[in-house]
């Protein structure tokens, strides 16, 4: 008992509990449910990519990589920025390979956030931002986006930006809502931060999963944003290899110089054989350009199967997540309904209130459609039955 009290007193994250992904994943396992809760594919990555990793391991790339990542991979990423966005990043000083996007995000926040610095976050938000801010004694300033469109009220943002705003975290395409920021959104953001010292952390892990011909609005396309921004990317999300925990970030050299001071002591370097493999794999742009059509087909497949169900939806515009509104079915809280869906129907999803400010509940559940057709078919059958 004494130990329990002491540990709770020394906790740096007293309010953080087990994440909803772990809770729902465990429940799904217990009830042998179809798991559309956590954001990972249930199909394998390209065998060519797996062969490249195997080859790299057999060729002896099994020791530490350089701290900033191997040059060939950083060059391939710089080339990708150039080809896709006509934007230059210097691979020597402006790109670093990380252990997934999560490590990049944690390191960026730890590098720049001091006590009482304010960080603007748009809610619902991916769950790794706020704990990292809290650990660094910063203050999260939450802006709630309104369901069902989750568009930004730029007047509200304007009112909240002040001399303490050290960072603004943005995420487009957006997890969990599947919304996408327009060029106009980026222009508004640019105008608001232009004469400030705020850094932008732009979480672009779903850059290659965006539908209906909408162009991805990377911060790097906007000069006043690029000069103060980190672009964060994830090879796990793009190439169905979430278990490898590989990603990268890009930023102007002054910012990246500071980032690397922290990066070298919290991870030093990311997996070496995977870096060799991705450097080769990125040489063929089709390997990332075809991802859109793969997921568009899956989104349409699922939505077509459930169009006559009692769930309401606006088709996801990006990411591999689809929100479904269940208010025509029950007035239970989203957490209760999500739990009952696992127990009674054997289908797992994520309740959105856990990502919202003050746990606002709009009767929305998030479903991951990065799944095989047969998994989506079985899930759709259940959704039509509920
Ligand atoms: C918005 C967002 N950012 C970052 C991540 C983490 O990416 P990684 O697995 O590369 O750490 C995720 C994973 O779900 C995500 O959805």
Tell me what the structure shows.
This protein has 386 residues and is α/β, with parallel strands linked by helices. The chain has 16 helices and 12 strands. Helices cover 42% and strands 14% of the residues. The strands form 3 sheets. The protein has a 7-stranded mixed beta sheet, with helices on both faces. A 3-stranded antiparallel beta sheet has the order 9-12-11. The chain has a two-stranded parallel sheet with strand order 1-10. The N and C termini lie far apart (45 Å). Bound molecules: pyridoxal-5'-phosphate (PLP).
Quick gist of this model?
The protein has 386 residues and is of the alpha/beta class.
Using the alpha-carbon principal axes, give the shape: globular
| Associated small molecules | pyridoxal-5'-phosphate
Classification by helices and strands: alpha/beta
Mean pLDDT reading: 95
Oligomer: single chain
Low-confidence stretches: none
Outline the biggest β-sheet. 7 strands, mixed
Q: How do the strands line up in the largest sheet?
A: 2-8-7-6-5-3-4
Question: How many DSSP E strands?
Answer: 12
What letter string, H or E per element, gives the SSE order? HHEHHEHEHEHEHEHEHEHHHHEHEEEH
Report the radius of gyration as a whole number of Å: 21 Å
State the end-to-end CA separation: 45 Å
Please work out how many helical segments DSSP would assign: 16
Our estimate of the beta-strand percent is 5-15%
Helix content: 40-55%
């Amino acid at each position: 008992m004494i130990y329990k009290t002491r540990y709770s007193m020394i906790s740096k994250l007293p309010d953080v509990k087990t994440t909803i992904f772990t809770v729902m994943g465990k429940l799904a396992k217990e009830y042998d449910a179809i798991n559309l809760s956590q954001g990972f594919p249930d199909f394998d990555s390209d065998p060519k990519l797996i062969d490249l990793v195997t080859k790299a391991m057999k060729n002896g790339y099994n020791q530490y990589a350089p701290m900033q990542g191997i040059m060939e991979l950083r060059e391939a990423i710089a080339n990708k920025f150039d080809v896709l966005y006509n934007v230059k990043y210097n691979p020597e000083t402006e790109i670093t390979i990380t252990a997934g996007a999560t490590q990049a995000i944690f390191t960026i926040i730890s590098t720049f956030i001091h006590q009482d610095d304010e960080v603007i976050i748009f809610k619902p938000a991916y769950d790794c931002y706020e704990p990292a801010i809290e650990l660094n004694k910063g203050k999260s300033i939450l802006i709630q986006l309104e369901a069902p469109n989750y568009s930004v009220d730029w007047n509200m943002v304007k009112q909240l930006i002040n001399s303490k705003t050290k960072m603004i975290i943005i995420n487009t395409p957006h997890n969990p809502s599947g919304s996408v920021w327009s060029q106009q959104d980026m222009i508004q953001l640019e105008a608001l931060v232009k004469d400030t010292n705020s850094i932008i952390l732009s979480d672009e892990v779903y850059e290659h999963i965006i539908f209906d011909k909408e162009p991805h609005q990377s911060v790097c396309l906007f000069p006043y944003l690029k000069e103060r921004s980190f672009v964060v990317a994830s090879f796990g999300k793009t190439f169905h290899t979430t278990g490898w925990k590989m990603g990268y970030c890009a930023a102007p050299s002054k910012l990246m110089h500071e980032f690397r001071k922290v990066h070298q002591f919290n991870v030093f370097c990311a997996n070496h054989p995977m870096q060799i493999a991705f450097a080769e794999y990125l040489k063929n742009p089709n390997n990332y350009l075809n991802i859109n059509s793969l997921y568009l087909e899956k989104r349409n497949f699922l939505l077509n199967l459930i169009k006559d169900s009692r769930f309401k939806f606006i088709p996801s515009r990006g990411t591999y997540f689809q929100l479904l509104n269940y208010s025509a079915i029950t007035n239970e809280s989203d957490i209760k309904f999500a739990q009952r869906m696992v127990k009674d129907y054997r289908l797992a999803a994520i309740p959105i209130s856990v990502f919202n400010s003050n746990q606002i509940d709009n009767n929305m559940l998030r479903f991951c459609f990065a799944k095989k057709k047969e998994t989506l078919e079985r899930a759709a059958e259940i959704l039509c039955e509920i």
